[in-house]
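Morning!

This is the sequence you dropped in the shared folder:
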Amino acid sequence: MTRKVPIIAVATAPGKAGVGVIRISGKNLSAMSSALFQKTLSPRQANLLTLCDESGQAIDQLIAIHFVGPASFTGEDVLELQCHGGPQLLELVMKRCLELGKAEGLVIAEPGEFTLRAYLNNKIDLTQAEAIADLIDAQSEAAVRGAARSLQGAFSDDINNLIEEITQLRILVESTLDFPEEEIEFLENAQARQRLTAVKEKLKALRAGAKQGKILRDGIQLVLAGAPNVGKSSLLNRLAGEEVAIVTPIAGTTRDRVKESITIDGVPMHIIDTAGLRETTDVVEAKGIERSWDAIRLADIVIFLTDAQSGAQQDDLKAQILRELPPKCAVLEFVNKADLLQESSKTAPSEALLISAKTGEGIEALKQRILELVGWAGPQEGAILARRRHLDCIERAAEHIEKSEEFAVNGNNSLELFAEELSLAQRHLGEITGKLLPDDLLGKIFSQFCIGK
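The structure's back. Tokens below.
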């Protein structure tokens, strides 16, 4: 995490392309650019140059740009080489750079090391660094816009403003500790409790936004489960809008998990169609059913699908699924093949909803039921992307603010505890932007980046 040597990596995606970008970052790259092109490059100017091998033969004609630190992405000198985008060509350019940069200690970058250096050099904070990865991985337009807002610092500003309000309140409380005989009057005159209530409300709004942001970033793991031949694959095809799963009248057609990602109202949905759950002596089908149970145990939501002619044995299967669910996972029950019923007999048991994967009847209501269950409030202006880590920190901070409110009300002999709870809340919020973050967690976060970032 703290190595000082210059680093190099291909910044564009693997495969053929019109242009491939290679980036080098280090403390002083003037000698490197001179070794590569036998000339000193003017800062921030595009130069059309030819890179040659050790025998003087041309490898590629490319555009080179030298960004002098700290006016660069990483805060160090950055040399960007825009080459033709053939994979073998990029390998040759990388090889030549490593040869000429050997004396400078040039090495291939580790995953996320460019962004890590930007973070360590105070070019961005941790939420902005994470937003770069989120922007690359975004699966919907809403996710792209949310990640872009986080990258521009919208989420960081909200966190930092809240930290500043808590800091001011801590200063007020801790200064009062030196004058115990006047503490109650002093705090009342300074409206400490009102200010604490304002912090609590802002934290509540921040938590609500983070919950929406997590849904927007991670999506929902949605598992279709049920007995064979109730229409799970047909429902997957209906939701996906194309034939992604094989559908036949033969029970047990689906023998392994079929995965498809879609968006509903801007929310990514990762749908898994599973093998029908039943007792079987077929070894291959049994393996598929075992994987079905594995998917159920990792689901955010399970759609338990029956058909309009299912018998009472479905209750036993539903009970078995409920026993296997992970914590906080919900089950939605839908009755398929409503198109086979007469109008007079179209009633669903308990809270189940009648649908038809064949005709599309009830599908929009199914989608809305899913969104309601996960607490999605719809696309919002100013939405940001958030991670589980962010939400955990906000929730822990909220717990400490709740405790601090109790001590603020108690008055005498409680101000030390009041100040301590404020300090703990502030610390958890600081972990979000990386102001107070353990090194091992920092390493884990940046290891998930691609090599060129």
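Headline: The mean pLDDT is 83.

More detail when I'm at my desk.
O.
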